[in-house]
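hi!! sorry for the late reply, been swamped w classes. u asked for the two structures so here they r. pasted raw, havent cleaned anything up. first the sequence of the first protein and right below it the tokens
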Amino acid sequence: MGSALEDRASEFRRRAASATATLARWIGEGADAPLAPRPAIDAVQLDLQNLEQDLAHHPEIAVLARQEEIAATEAKLAQASRKPDWSVEFAYQQRGSDYSNMVSLGISIPLPWDTGNRQDREASAKFAAAEQARAQREELLRAHVGEVRALLAEWQSGRERMTRYERELIPLAAERSRASLAAYQGGRAGLTDLLLARRNETEVRMQAVQLEMETARLWAQLNFLTPRGGGAQ
């Protein structure tokens, strides 16, 4: 049993070293700094009532929203170009004594050529591009909302299981270890029974640690999903 536990401890140390190396790739020497206190993973910064609004700040969705704005602006400009842009020019010239002063007035009226085909096709293409950009943004937003709801359900399940381990499974396993020790000391149980009880307690505690690690990973994904987080605790 001791060798198996040491092997598992070595595996956890390897995973910690690998995580530190990956973090150093992004933040440099700060990856070796002492760890901060453990965060409270029983709350996330996402407002479940306004999930779509929070996720609208996600970088991928924000980029599509910007593309949608640009496409909509281009569509409006294409529509405006269909209307002739009239212009009026007025000029006054004061000439020498041998000539009278002169006033001129000019009106410019563009005559669009083949408006029904060329400009209409251009405007229609721009509006179609704007509609496509809107549909892409909405589709990606719905996909992200679905993913986040699934993560939230998994995180909440992890919290419930952690509570069950803390309140029921770990105390029960510890009580069985104490009972086995008392029975062994009283000659009512053998060494094998005691070792099995101790091993069971150790396994339960290791499972609780593993569950907490997985739940903390989900919490981190949810808590830092958007640049600004959410509004609700």
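now the second protein. again sequence first, tokens right under
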Amino acid sequence: MKTLFQGEERLVSGINMRMRTSLTSKVEVQKERFEFGKNWERFLKVLDESRILEAEKSLKKMLETEDLKNRRFLDVGSGSGLFSLAARRLGAEVHSFDYDPLSVACTEELKRRYFPDDLNWSVERGDVLDRDYLSALGKYDIVYSWGVLHHTGNMWMALENVVPPVNEGGKLFISIYNDQGPLSQFWRWLKKLHNRSSKPIKIAIILWFGTFFEARSAAMRLLRWRNPLPFKYWKEKKKSRGMSVWHDLVDWVGGYPFEVAKPEEIFDFYRMKGFTLVKLKTCGGGLGCNEYVFLKK
């Protein structure tokens, strides 16, 4: 028992240290922060009914439910607003917020298109690193934050701050970039380089890595005796959360600040806060996000 307590103390100490040291200086973050909102603004031009239905399907699958009627849904870092829209269409009362003003505008645009003057969907600008703001939002049956908390500049503080809004018996649905060790450090360097570069160099970096990822995907399909034709993955991506390969690629190459975590780190972090893991979808130890659904006891 003593050994167990000592192990948890070391875990808490390590997390607290990372919460203090992972916070990038405000000057550095503002200078190198990727403009997520501009990317989502372009994504809205290709958003259609089929993508919205795929987003709804992914929510239902991970949350293990057919609808969200009579539930309160908090979208932390709403981005394009697609999943706020999906949750609202599934019947939830939705509150969306994002740090990026253009992302807020994108979410407001989707609300205007599909739920104008709806009192059960509110949108505003907010910061997940503002603990007082999160605490003042009240309680929600589902707190959702997909691919957001690792882009804040202090991931562990963000992971901490999304705890208070989760209602007793509620669910926390998050996704966090997988820790690939030294390779993750390379990605972090690349993202900073991209955001510091001129527009032509940014485009060149994106196209180079797009070609690399497509070639790798084609090679893997060929090894599995599947169709290796180029861009086949692009159609498959649309069936995964309703997203777009191109806009995801731009987000991936430029997405900074950038932090990562191993699945066991996330599991232990929330276990100590009274959460039980009820759903896990990993990226197989490679590049990408691990998805977690926790239940608050």
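hope this helps!! also noticed smth abt the second:
The radius of gyration is 19 Å.
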